[in-house]
Design a protein that fits this description.
Elements lengths: L8 H7 L5 E5 L4 H13 L2 E5 L5 H8 L3 E3 L12 E4 L8 H8 L3 E3 L1 H8 L4 E6 L4 H14 L5 E3 L11 E2 L4 E6 L5 H4 L4 E4 L7 H4 L2 H14 L4 E4 L3 H4 L2 H4 L2 E4 L6 E9 L2 E7 L7 E6 L4 H16 L4 H7 L11 E6 L2 E6 L4 H10 L9 E6 L4 H7 L12 E4 L16 H10 L5 E3 L3 H11 L4 E6 L7 H13 L3
Length: 475
């Protein structure tokens, strides 16, 4: 990985004050490609590199950003600053060349720390829900005439790009995985929730909580915090935060919640008068997305947008890439792809799979665990994550740049679920080719197959449908 952030904050604030020549290693990732767009729109001369071609690289080239494939040491010549995806190892030849030539090398967190002082930044932080909440807030602000910039770690169909350097405000995801949430200079912040993750970065739940506490303390404008999440709610009083949630004590809250036809229907309320409310139709599944909406609404209102305007802005929101994304219908079966990879996210996704109008015969959950060190520490935490599924299929771990650990495989998750729920049908299918064939043969008419994880499980629906086509032709 790139070395730990060590740049002086004052130096970071001045680093991008004038046009610079910036190179981004691993620019094809969702976070780094968005940073490339931001830097280019700020007026910097940006280039990038990656290991293989992709649609993302093609889009960056269309914006005038030069991209080389594969990596090449000489591309950093003449650069003022080089930064990299967190997945890029310090041994990368471009990073080594930059260091050898005395070029400033920034982590992703440091680069965000250099960008955010140049706008009134609204940070969206928390273990879950950052991408959807950032997307909803951006749409609300745009509808309210605020003309924000944004940086979102996924594609959002309703927005022209995943990133844009706008006018008055800059809204972005503040990620705790590399402590970006502490490097960002925020003028307003949202905290969606606090859960156990990234223990390699923060050590413990107490460490993660302390980091969000520090982020809120450093915010010099409105703070919005979830009242329904106990760990997040414990920080409310110390920071005089606006609260949101289903809880009747929340400042901004939802009542009369019901789910039908893949949408949430509820009333958003923010005061004691009957006029302090608006009916909402949010075309997203799950109570977790109701909370994401409320977080965005609370912040939009704090920044001067009418709640009625904010609610209307997301009435046709079609969601974020890889968030309960319907990828295919095939021979009566439905295939959904979702980014869920932590226990609470899996619970929320599977709970959202059945609303009052759904008629699935079975819900089949296919899960790809992520990161060896995460599974070494957290595999038992997944024991109750799949209780809403009729069949659970677990495959092996996607490394995401982490080193293999002896004895740590996806079977640890299988064992945890089987111990806690011996009556459940749980299948261990570690090899990708076997996984594709198994799912293709198992899924039948009326079934919903939800594949989950933040690795290459994303392509599974396409691979399974292709295999089903082969089987239908006797191959």
């Amino acid at each position: 990985m790139v070395a730990r952030a060590s740049q002086n904050p004052a130096h970071l604030r001045s680093l991008l004050a004038a046009p610079r020549r910036v190179h981004i290693v691993g620019v094809g990732g969702p976070g780094t490609s968005a940073i490339a767009i931001i830097l280019a729109e700020m007026g910097h001369r940006v280039s990038g590199s990656d290991m293989r071609e992709s649609e993302t690289l093609a889009r960056l080239r269309q914006r005038g950003i030069a991209v080389n494939v594969p990596h090449r040491a000489d591309v950093v010549n003449g650069c003022d600053v080089v930064t990299a995806s967190a997945a890029v190892p310090a041994t990368n030849l471009e990073l080594q060349a930059a260091t050898a030539n005395g070029i400033t090398v920034l982590t992703r967190a440091e680069m965000l720390g250099a960008i955010t002082p140049h706008a009134r930044t609204v940070a969206v932080a928390g273990t879950h829900g950052k991408t959807t909440t950032t997307s909803l807030l951006t749409m609300m602000l745009r509808a309210g005439g605020v003309n924000p910039g944004w940086l979102i770690g996924a594609d959002v169909p309703q927005l022209p790009a995943s990133a844009h350097w706008g006018g008055e405000l800059f809204v972005l995801e503040a990620d705790e995985s590399d402590s970006s949430h502490l490097a960002i200079r925020a003028r307003a912040s949202i905290l969606t929730n606090i859960d156990v993750d990234h223990l390699d970065e923060h050590g413990s739940l107490a460490g993660i909580t302390a980091s969000f506490d520090a982020m809120l303390a450093a915010t010099d404008g409105p703070r919005v915090v979830c009242a329904d999440d106990p760990a997040a709610a414990s920080l409310v009083a110390a920071h005089d935060a606006i609260t949101y949630g289903i809880s009747p004590t929340a400042t901004v809250r939802a009542t009369d919640v019901r789910f039908a036809a893949g949408a949430a229907h509820f009333v958003a309320r923010w005061g004691s008068s009957e006029h302090d409310s608006v009916p909402v139709r949010l075309p997203l599944r799950g109570l977790h997305n109701v909370r994401n909406f409320l977080a965005a609404l609370a912040m939009a209102q704090a920044l001067g947008v009418s709640p009625v305007v904010a609610a209307a802005a997301v009435d046709t929101f079609s969601g974020v890439h890889r968030r309960f994304q319907v990828r295919a219908h095939h021979d009566g079966a439905t295939f959904v792809d979702d980014y869920a990879h932590l226990p609470a996210e899996i619970v929320a996704t599977l709970a959202a799979a059945r609303d009052e109008s759904d008629t699935w015969r079975r819900v089949i959950a296919v899960f790809q665990p992520n990161r060896f060190h995460r599974m070494a520490l957290m595999s038992d935490e997944y024991r109750d994550s799949f209780v809403s599924a009729d069949l659970v299929v677990i495959t092996d771990i996607y490394a995401s740049g982490t080193e293999r650990i002896d004895g740590v495989t996806g079977e640890l998750v299988v064992d945890a679920v089987r111990r806690a729920h011996p009556q459940m049908r749980v299948e261990w299918v570690p090899q990708r080719s076997e996984l594709i064939d198994f799912v293709a043969r198992e899924v039948g008419p009326g079934d919903l197959c939800v594949s989950m994880g933040c690795g290459d499980i994303e392509t599974l629906p396409d691979e399974v449908v292709a295999r089903r086509e082969e089987l239908s032709h006797g191959r």
